[in-house]
């Protein structure tokens, strides 16, 4: 480079730095400016020999990222400094220790988090991409600003991607649409989310992007005329009320127009709401709500509203903090148009996300509550290590990006939950203890099943009991990551307790067979019963699946002279591969059918999708070939489900050793006070037994009873029958 070019570049760098300070959303103190200056000097020094693919000095990239962080996102000096330094450790000779010494713990931690993300293995494979995403979220444990700066970094990379190879452009753009745009949306950075989506489309589908962009430019003039017409109708009424306001048109993003065209299968011209009208008014905090509804009434006086399209985000703000009134009205020329009513404060929150909350809540201890709440929710999703990475991403999206519903506690507090949430999800969102002891739920004062889907505005009351505990069916009723993770860990604990009991029972049973209870014997038993872990063995003894008879069979096979002889000849004994693994494995080996999953029927596996145990499946009743089992994502599934819905049977793979079975017992005897209570106490004190139905009829001092129980197996049922026979007054107990 010539000396003149270097001078020009240095001038440009200095100008960019001044602009960074000038456009900062937060008011910067002298201390802040000093911090930013030091970070800037170190960044310039660290990157002095680096150039970007476009040929410009590398330092322009960290400055641009810092400008996005300072102005568009509106973060503090610490974040601006970290943004300036975000590539220093990764690309230059500076270390974390250097950054820590110069800028302190916080900045160093943010830079470390950003470096961790950058050093993740990039791959086209979706599961690896999802795994990267998960690791990226784990850095949130340090500081949420890591993610926010990463989003700014990604935005600038997307804005300056022209010099890259086309295959790299597509890869980065796809990752942006899959990961970064939804995250920006979740944090409340709507402007950035929109830009990321549009840029993503620009590189993944360039022709579609250019086509829509050209059409938007062509229709801009017509749009401006329309907004003028709309404003003209309501201006007089707004001025009469002395409102200070402005009316703007906001074109819908290219990405959202494209999505509408795809979803509704329409052309560009047929998309009717290509823009929204925004009314932004000035007001004091105490009048904000009143003014919003006043403007609403003025707009609806002049234009007929669509009653199903009112969105009141003022009374119940979104969890991102977004507040506004959205109405869709029949505007001039008979066109539906969306009108968004916001105060200046609400508008800033919509554009800046949480930063505007900080600005408007100065001195308030609660200012970080929103981010804290978001972090906590994220933490819950991360707490479940069992979920594989792709499921994790989907679950995360379901829980945090899905449409929200708002429900009330009995005290009238508002709770936000993802769409599709059930009373169980609500219970776990209040507290783990409430969730694990849920016995039932009332929605709007009516008892509902735990699988009931909640709707916005419902008042939910959870009925708890100390004796209640999660069972495997709860996983079918819970949708949020938190509830599912807590139920799974509770079921694991319960299984481990049963396994502890089983261990003691097995010890006694082996002693009576004169067999030593040691690792060698346990290994032999695990191999003999085709299990994987010792816990599997103890658990199945605990629930009675492996009973006296089976242990006697094992003992006799062990003492069989021929078997012993062969065993001695074959030197290498079989050792269970996971003998000491601390878990109870699920063996998907049995298919059950029906809504209550209590029917075992003959079936054939469909050859079109070849389901295997563990797959999500359904049964289809064929005309001549009995029940065929298909995977839920089988290519033929949609056609079968839409054309022959009446022939579809729900189906599920279950672990046969942990399956519950229905059994009906009949009781008769002499009626006396408290007998029913004694019977139900005896049954409920027995682990792994549930009463589905109880019916007693008493006549002239004699009673007859019928109880439907859900038990794991025959031996548990026999134990209960024997115990019931011992109750005073009971004459007969028989199984139906």
From TrEMBL:
Stored PROSITE patterns: HD, TGS
Annotated ranges, domain HD: 58-158
Residue ranges of coiled coil: none
Pathway given in the UniProt record: Purine metabolism
Domain TGS: 403-464
Domain of life (superkingdom): Bacteria
Pfam family, one: RelA_AH_RIS
Function: In eubacteria ppGpp (guanosine 3'-diphosphate 5'-diphosphate) is a mediator of the stringent response that coordinates a variety of cellular activities in response to changes in nutritional abundance.
NCBIfam families found in the cross-reference section: spoT_relA
Family membership noted in the UniProt record: Belongs to the relA/spoT family.
Annotated protein name in UniProt: RelA/SpoT family protein
Organism annotation: Autumnicola musiva
